[in-house]
Amino acid sequence: MSDEDDIIIRVRGLKNSFGNQVVHEDLDLDVRRGEILGVVGGSGTGKSVLMRSIIGLQAPNAGSVEVFGHDMLAGTPGEQTEIRKRWGVLFQGGALFSTLTVAENVQVPLREFYRGFNQQQLDEIASYKVVMTGLPSDAGPKYPAELSGGMRKRAGLARALALDPELLFLDEPTAGLDPIGAAAFDEQTRSLQRTLGLTVFLITHDLDTLHAICDRVAVLADKHVIAVGTINELLALDHPWIQEYFNGPRGRAAIAGSDRAQAPAGA
Amino acid sequence: MTAMADFQRVESDSETLLRFTGDLSLASIGDLPERLPGVAPVDRIDLAGVDRIDTVGAWMIHRFATARDVPVSGLEGDEAQLYEQVARAADQPVVAPAPDYGLFLRIVAETGEAVISAFRTLHGLLGFMGATVIAFWNVFTRPRRFRLNATVQRFEVVGVSALGIIGLMSFLIGIVIAQQGAVQLKQFGAEVYTINLVGRITLRELGVLMTAIMVAGRSGSAFAAQIGTMKLTEEIDAMRTIGVSPMEALVVPRTLAAIVMMPLLGFYASLIAIIGGGLLCWISLDVPPITFVQRIREVVPLTDLWVGLIKAPVFGAIIAIAGCFQGMLVEGDAEQVGARTTAAVVQAIFLVIVLDAFFAVFFSGVGWI
């Protein structure tokens, strides 16, 4: 029974299609409590669609989605809101509200769900959340249009973490960041995940991110999840796409990089 | 279920403790932020009895501990690390937005900014008109750079697609003018002059003016939104790097379409308005259509038609240039597209009416009355 409890997201037999184009067919996926699950797949294999199905932005044609043991496709709007409070989502472009400052963006979920704080307390909370995601503290009163792409992502992460969620969805968090910024973002994600005990559903193309922070990796191909496991387990599989992905020139470079990073710690 | 966060003040011989229990997280924090400041002085904060702590809980404890200058104890492992991180982040000063200068200064400042921005816009619009003329000249001297397909497509969008709505609007306007005119003129027994009223006002003024307003709302706004969105998605920059001039590829076809279509639409609108007026005259004044048409030919001088047709292309050019200009000004975020589209329509209609006043004075001056 404890095994059952530890599955945070359970997707079974998911089917998604747009017109004649079938994106997912018979897709199964489990995400365990406290892990960082990386989701990889070629362009157009429906990684973002899978995330949108799980968070309820995309109604699937068939199948079931359970989050925290609740069926996401049934349930009253009130119950769904209760579950929404327990997760945070970082969209690809940050999806910050452009008419609000960064600090106000972070305060939106707090205002929506908890009315116990006064303005000064909200300002303080927004300020420390912004700083914790690695932004300078003077980013708070700025508008999203005044920020660079990387800073927008961090601000988006601050908003995703506003309610101290148990579950975090990240859609390509390091895409478009420079390698140093991407590494810092990975580091940040890992440390937040450890300290807050987060479960993270991470869509990425970034092989370094996979090596650096993911506990397990799910590979999306042929309209379903073809394999889930640690990178070493996946490397042992004989699927051409997986071999190409992890053993291609970029994959090798990432493996070498993660070996170098681990060597001093091991010595 | 998780226990609500709570605290007790525990006094012993050596020290006074503030002992927290339950779940120090956002969902179960309850009214703690309000109760905490009222607590009597303590020597130490003890968190050993806390089940779970999240960043909001850590922030609240840290805020209290800093304000009272008391040590915190009882956290271990990840929770201590979490507290540490939050404390470090919360020690950064809260940066407030720019200060408020009070109502009077704000009104003065906003008035000044509005005046400056109005002059800047006018200046920019003049510059853009010049750039449009240059682009037209470039296309004229190098006809291979003229984009026939794009232009014809604009003709359809600006002209043909507008026929339905402009026809309906003009028909109703014709009826309204005839009806109002008939009611007023009847008081002098001069209701037969309703025909003069309908014929002259639609051809001289209303046909073209109402069409211009409709085209500004339909096409001027579309130009601003299209070009604005293309600016946001860097399509305009891409064009420039490839060596395609956005002025020639986007602004020339749109402006040309508006210049060519406005007289046609204005003439069409005038005709439909006269038909509407004629219908009302037939129904309520018993003027048969044959007589109506005959009277129209007698009382409407041909110069009235020229007045309308000369104004129309100028209005078209103004509408298209204002739309494209505002679209090109978009930068930053999606909200700008909406603001610029609104500005394009307002500016176009305003300029059309100002120009119409100048035209009225001019045509009176040259004797076309």
Quick overview of this protein structure:
The complex is a heterodimer of chains A (267) and B (369). Chain A is 43% helix and 24% strand.
- The structure class of chain A reads alpha/beta
* Tally of structural domains of chain B: 2
Count of alpha/pi helices of chain B: 12
Spatially, the strands of the biggest sheet of chain A line up as 6-7-8-3-9-10
Briefly, what CATH class of the largest domain in chain A? Alpha Beta
- DSSP helix fraction of chain B: over 70%
CA radius of gyration of chain B is: 35 Å
Portion in strands of chain B: 5-15%
Low-confidence stretches of chain B: none
Largest sheet of chain B: 5 strands, mixed
Q: How many separate domains of chain A?
A: 2
Alpha-carbon Rg of chain A, integer: 19 Å
The structural class of chain B is alpha/beta
Strand content of chain A: 15-25%
Shape designation of chain B:
elongated
Helix content of chain A: 40-55%
Q: Which spans of chain A have pLDDT < 50 for at least 5 consecutive residues?
A: none
What is the mean predicted local confidence, pLDDT of chain A?
84
CATH architecture of the largest domain in chain A: 3-Layer(aba) Sandwich
End-to-end separation of chain A: 40 Å
SSE run of chain B: EEHEEHEHHHHHHHHHH
Give a written overview of the molecule.
The complex is a heterodimer of chains A (267) and B (369). With 267 residues, chain A is an alpha/beta fold. Chain A has two domains: 2-86 and 166-231, 3-Layer(aba) Sandwich (Rossmann fold); 89-164, no CATH class. Chain A is built from eleven helices and ten strands. In chain A, the strands form two sheets. Chain A has a six-stranded mixed β-sheet with strand order 6-7-8-3-9-10. In chain A, helix 7 links the parallel strand 7 and strand 8 (199-203). In chain A, helix 4 packs parallel to helix 6 (149-160). Chain A starts with a helix and ends with a helix. Chain B is an alpha/beta fold. Chain B has two domains: 6-90, Transcription Regulator spoIIAA (2-Layer Sandwich), CATH 3.30.750; 127-365, no CATH class. Chain B contains twelve helices and five strands. In chain B, strands 1, 2, 3, 4 and 5 form a five-stranded mixed β-sheet that branches. The radius of gyration of chain B is 35 Å and the shape is elongated. Chain B starts with 5 loop residues before the first strand and ends with a helix. The model of chain B has no long low-confidence stretch (mean pLDDT 90).
